[in-house]
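YM 10:42: Terminase small subunit sequence, as discussed on the call
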Amino acid sequence: MPAKDGDWTRQERIFAREMAKTADAVNAAKVAGYAHPAVAASKLQRREAVMQTVWQQIATRIETTLVPMALATFEEVLRPENAEKFPARVRVDAADKVLKHYRSTRPEDEGEKELHELTAAEHRARYEAERLKLKAFEALLVEAENTIEHDLPSPAEGEEADIFD
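YM 10:58: structure's back
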């Protein structure tokens, strides 16, 4: 429970930090030094302020650490110079995920605007989305051009082609 002045105890702060890191309430209570971790974990998880803090810390970690890592991964996969490292299907899937996420974050009416109605930021966003699509198609084209096609020999004059050849 928080101290009478509303401040959190040291154990509560440690619990929230550990819970945000591991999502293991009993372990978080153990690390925080509670005598009965399972009981403390159960009580702390029912406290709205504690869980809001946990979710806020998780959201902060996702936004500051995981999202940049995910974006860097997508950028690495989509770079033309990495075409040989990642199969075309992986690159197309990455481009598709980036574009779907981008579209899901845009306001509904933005796609309906005429070009002359767009702000500079909207023009830039459309440009970037189209550039990503183009990169994905270019990657497929490069891979297709680098694929060795094996021509089957045609049947000799007068022979019928066997479907099992």
